[in-house]
Amino acid sequence: MKFSPCAAALAILAFTALPGHADEPSTQTTITIYAGGKPVATLMMPIGAKGNLAANANHVDDGNTQTRFTGNVQGKLQLPAAQELVFYGEDIELKTEKLSPERLRAVRDIEAMAVSDQLYRGRSATGELSPEEWKKQNAIDAANMKRLVEIVDAFGWPGVRFAGAASGTAFLVLQHADHASQRKYLPLLREAVRRHDAIGSDLAMLEDRVRVADGKPQLYGTQLATNPLRFAPIEDEARVDERRSSVGLPPLAEYAKMLGLNYTPK
Question: How far does the signal peptide extend, from start to end residue (predicted)?
């Protein structure tokens, strides 16, 4: 359905946040903001989320699975059990995508890993577990990584565009995997960050973990050494805060304070 309002008029559209799939649990709705014809930000709804949207705009182009608002856009999105989300701009698109059964299963499996990843290690604030507890957690980690490899082989790295918030769980599974897996899939995480599909601070942690395990100095200061507790060696430490800032991490001195460490910037 196309809307062609007269000059200076407003088109008003109200519909569920899942047009055409109101009762379908395997759909995902996104709101994308454009500038100069290019997407600059996207808000992803949880899979299967339903809601009501009302928006005013100079022009509304309504398709089967997406609606584009342009010119003085003002709208409100109401999700169940949530406050209203107000948005505005000059070029905004609302799109609903029906997920394939395979992708839906992959995302749900990654979401489920969030619990098992912390089943034993989450019981201790210091990471001190019994040998038997570590044996059980390591077996879980291996099973999670096996399933993650299947997902990566089928779909590529499950970044934000693919898995939404669950993309963070995919990172944790890799972070807790064996060293060979970390080295193998690190380039995929690098590429995901480059295309704004993964979090830079996650990449920093994995980069440092792989480098330390390889006997190299870390880049971002995310890894600690023990006896006594201190930062593992850092390459070009005088510029570590520049690198940390580039991936959204606070200065190393602030991080050290959070950990209760004494640290003097180089």
Answer: 1-22
